[in-house]
Structures are given as C-alpha cells and as structure tokens.
Design goal:
There is one protein chain. The chain has 358 residues and is of the alpha/beta class. Helix content is 32%, strand content 11%. It has a domain of 219 residues: Aldolase class I (TIM Barrel), CATH 3.20.20. The strands form 2 sheets. A 7-stranded mixed sheet has the order 2-3-6-7-8-9-10. Strands 1-5-4 form a 3-stranded mixed sheet. Helix 6 links the parallel strand 7 and strand 8. Helix 3 packs parallel to helix 5. It is globular. The termini are far apart. Keywords: Iron, Iron-sulfur, Metal-binding. InterPro entries: Elp3/MiaA/NifB-like_rSAM (IPR006638), MJ0683-like (IPR040086), rSAM (IPR007197), rSAM_sf (IPR058240).
Length: 358
C-alpha cells in the first residue's frame, strides 16, 4: 500500500470512498518506480474546482431539538476551509463525491440562491424566524470573495427586514458590515465566529484555509466596534488536541464577543476514518489516546447520534469539558444576556420588490 502523506493547505490526504460507492479502491505500488515521485510531492496538489447549480430550494427546516435555529441556508456545498473535523463532510456523499479531498476541492455554488430565497420568503406559508447562514458550509469561504452569493442573500434579508445570524471562520464577513451593522442595530442580525484554538500551527493543519486565529479575533473586534452582537464558538473540543479553551474565551471576550457556545467532536459516517487518518499523519503517538477519550464521550463508540448527547457527549470527560466551559464563561461574563432577534419587522412584500401600503 502507498503510505499517505499530508497535503499542504488541505485538511485531508485522500479521496476516501463515500458510503454509497459499490467498489472501494486502494492505491498500491505497481513496481514502475512512480511511488518515489508521489512520496516526494512532485505531483501537483489538488486544485479547487467550482461548479454551479440551480437550487430548487433555499431554506432548510430544522426539527432537531438540540439545535437552536429553525431555518438554515447554505449558498455553497463543500467548503474550501478544509477543516478536518467538519461534521458536514459526509453530505458530499449525496453528490457522489468524496467527503475527503472532494469536500474541500469540489465546491458547488448555488448561483440562484437569492432568487429562490426571495420566492420562499414571499410565500404566504413562510413564518419569519431567524435564518442561520452557514450550517453545513462556511458562507464566507474563499470563493465568496468572487461569487458574492452570501452578500446577495444578506442584501435580500436587509431589504425585507428578516432576522438572520451568521456562523463563520472567514474574515470576509467584515466586507458586508455595511449591510450587517444597520440590521444589527435594528435587532435583525448577529454573528458567531468560530475559534477552535489560538495555536496557529495547530490551526494550520486542523483548518488549513480558514482565517488565522489572530485574524478571527480582529474580525470579532471589527464586528463589536460596529455594534453587531457577536459570539464565539469554541467548537469542536477535541481531547488532547485543542486544549486552550479558556485562553480562546478570554481572547474573544477581550475582542468584544459577549456570548459563547461549544460542542465536542462529532464523527458521523465517513468522518470517523478521515479523522483517524489525520491523527496518524499528525499525532501518531497520541492517536490511540485521543480516540479513547472520544469514545469515552460516546458510550464506547466513535459517534452516537442521540439528540440528548451528540453535541456535548456524555461521561466523565464530557462533564470535565462542560465544567471548564461554564466556569470560564462565568468568570469572564459570557452569556449574561441572550441575543434576541426581532422577527416582527419582516416585510414579505419587500422580498419580491412590492412596497407595503401601510
């Protein structure tokens, strides 16, 4: 078998087979002296490819009791940030693509997302509640700089006064402050910035194409200075990998974040073997210990989808993480006031360019 090697700028090292494939293929040395070239990295690294699709719907409806939002919206499928731990990786399997390298190199852009959203918001059956942007992909990943699909969505939400929140690791959210800041002042917008660790070297291999930790702190400061309610996500917590939760919370508080939340690592479907590969490449001496703690939080399994425990885990180790988070939040002052967005301002006619008569 040809040994795997980390790829600079990518979170995973292989196009692991997705769960719907009938055949699984493994690379091996065929004896023609080509293995040395691959090992030395002479072959070109995989480039990012963007394809377009016409979305049939824009909003996803959430019914899971452990998730705080009712509607989700994702302008893209896949995410170039390449976070190895991303729970959304297995969604690429539905496209017939690998949750590994394909998820971070084969990006699908929903070019008509704003138009479809306008139609859905104007529908009589639509009940205005907060829309979460970036539930299974980052709305401010690198391709957004050019395509501006997320900005088109935010422009529409501003036009019809619909509340929304953004979850991102991308500093590109600052570009849209001209839209987000006025909405925030009207109680219609909030932003949550994910900072997994302050360790730049760890972030470079854990989430290789996301903004650097210091840059995300600067984004929090820019948002807070503009009057935007901003929170920090210290997710996911991975035993013996990102161990600086308290330091992240303190830095985020100093930057202006006033709410915080966390989850522990989830490893559904193909994400489990992908994360194990990552451990063997980057933390081989610690891999068994890390997986043992992860399984301890999941009742002896790599993952348990039970709504009661899938976000925070269970058992002694999960309890220790919970206590660390809550004590740090109390000490710093996080979560003393709940961010409430106002859905009463929604004007459905504005979504399709109709002005209200009243």
């Amino acid at each position: 078998m040809i040994p795997l090697h980390a790829i600079k700028g990518r979170g995973t090292a292989t196009r692991i087979a997705h769960r719907f494939e009938r055949d699984v293929r493994n690379a091996f040395d065929d004896g023609w002296d080509t293995l040395a070239d691959d090992v030395q990295g002479d072959s070109a690294p995989p480039a990012t490819q963007v394809t377009f699709e016409d979305a049939k719907s824009a909003l996803t409806h959430n019914e899971s009791p452990d998730i705080y939002f009712d509607y989700g919206l994702n302008p893209y499928r896949g995410c170039e940030h390449g976070c190895v731990y991303c729970y959304a990786r297995p969604t690429h399997s539905y496209l017939g693509l690998s949750p590994g390298l394909d998820f971070e190199t084969r990006i699908v852009a929903k070019r008509n997302i704003a138009a479809v959203l306008a139609r859905e918001l104007a529908a009589p059956r639509h009940v205005p509640r907060m829309i979460a942007l970036g539930t299974v992909t980052d709305p401010y990943q690198p391709v957004e700089r050019e395509l501006r699909l997320t900005r088109g969505v935010v422009e529409l939400l501003q036009q019809c006064h619909h509340p929304f929140a953004v979850v991102t690791k991308g500093s590109g959210v600052e570009r849209d402050l001209d839209l987000i800041a006025p909405m925030a002042q009207a109680g219609l917008a909030a932003v949550y910035v994910t900072i997994t660790t302050l360790n730049a070297n760890l972030a470079r291999i854990l989430e290789p194409r996301a903004a650097a930790p210091y840059r995300r702190l600067r984004t929090i400061r820019s948002l807070a200075d503009a009057g935007v309610p901003v929170g920090v996500s210290v997710a996911p917590q991975i035993p013996f990998v990102n161990e600086d939760m308290e330091q992240v919370l303190a830095a985020a508080w100093e930057a202006g974040a006033r709410s915080a939340f966390y989850t522990v690592l989830r490893l559904p479907w193909e994400l489990s073997p992908l994360f194990r590969q990552w451990l063997e490449l980057h933390y081989p001496q610690r891999a068994a210990r890390i997986m043992a703690r992860i399984q301890e939080m999941r009742g002896g399994k790599d993952y348990d989808s039970d709504f009661a425990t899938r976000m925070k885990g269970s058992g002694l180790w999960a309890e220790l993480v919970r206590q660390r988070f809550e004590k740090a939040c109390r000490r710093l002052g996080f979560n003393r006031e709940r961010i409430e967005l106002d859905a009463s301002q929604f004007r459905p006619g504005e979504a399709v360019g109709q002005r209200s008569l009243f």
